[in-house]
Specification:
- This protein is an all-beta fold and about 200 residues long.
- Helices cover about 0% and strands about 50% of the residues.
- Strands 1, 3, 4, 6, 8, 12, 13, 14, 15 and 16 form a ten-stranded mixed sheet that branches. Strands 2-5-7-9 form a four-stranded parallel sheet, with no helix packed on it. Strands 17-18-19 form a three-stranded antiparallel sheet, with no helix packed on it.
- A hairpin with a 2-residue loop joins strand 15 and strand 16.
- The termini are far apart.
C-alpha cells in the first residue's frame, strides 16, 4: 500500500449491490503489504440493504495480508467463501455496522457447500475477537492459528504469538504439598502445562 489510501464510496447503492474494493477469485493470488488504508463505504442515510466489504475472496483465491488498515461502514471488512484462503499476518480491521446483532469483521461463509478459510496470525480488530466468533450461529469460525492468542486491549483485540513462561516447581514442605513445573502464556494466561 506504500502509505496510500484507497476508498470506494457509493452514496446511493442499488438494492443488494455489492460494494467491494478488492474481489479476488478463480484461483488468483493477491498479497497486500505495507502501511496505508483501504475503505469501502456507502452514504450514512442509505437504508438499502447491500454488502459493503473491503476484500472478498472466492473460488479458490489465495490472499495474504501483511499490513494496512481496512474499514467498512457495513458489517464485513474481509470475506472468504467457496474454497478461498485468506492469511492475515498484520493490519487493522474494522466493520462498523452490525447485522442481526453481530459484527462480521472477518466473515467466513459457505456457498455451494464449500467453506472459505481465514487464518489469523496477527493484526488488530476493532470491537471484534477473531478467536471467538461464529457466523449466523453456525460454527464457521475465523481461526486464530496455533501458537497465537487474541488479547483484549480497550475496544480492540490484538492477535500475537504466545509468550511461554515457565512456572517453577515448588518443593513440598511440612505445610504444603508443593507443585510440579508448569508453563503458561504471559499475554493471555493460557496454560500449556498445569502445575500439579
Amino acid at each position: 500500500l506504500n502509505g496510500n489510501s484507497l476508498t470506494l464510496h457509493r452514496e446511493e447503492p442499488e438494492l443488494n449491490e455489492k460494494i467491494e474494493v478488492f474481489l479476488v477469485k478463480n484461483d488468483a493470488q493477491l498479497t497486500i503489504k505495507g502501511e496505508g488504508s483501504v475503505s469501502a463505504t456507502v452514504g450514512e442515510d442509505n437504508e438499502v440493504e447491500c454488502y459493503v466489504g473491503v476484500l472478498s475472496a472466492i473460488d479458490g483465491a489465495k490472499v495474504t495480508i501483511k499490513g494496512g488498515s481496512y474499514y467498512s461502514n457495513g458489517c464485513t471488512a474481509i470475506y472468504s467463501t467457496r474454497g478461498a484462503i485468506i492469511d492475515i499476518y498484520g493490519g487493522t480491521f474494522e466493520a462498523s455496522e452490525k447485522w442481526n446483532g453481530n459484527l462480521f469483521t472477518l466473515d467466513v461463509n459457505e456457498a455451494e457447500d464449500v467453506l472459505g478459510i481465514i487464518n489469523v496470525y496477527g493484526g488488530t480488530y476493532v470491537n471484534f475477537d477473531p478467536a471467538n466468533h461464529t457466523n449466523d450461529g453456525k460454527n464457521y469460525t475465523n481461526k486464530v492459528m496455533d501458537g497465537y492468542c487474541s488479547i483484549k486491549v480497550e475496544n480492540n483485540y490484538v492477535v500475537a504469538e504466545h509468550v511461554v513462561v515457565t512456572d517453577k516447581a515448588v518443593s513440598p514442605d511440612c505445610e504444603n504439598d508443593g507443585l510440579t513445573e508448569g508453563s503458561h502464556c504471559s499475554r493471555c494466561n493460557h496454560v500449556f502445562v498445569s502445575q500439579e
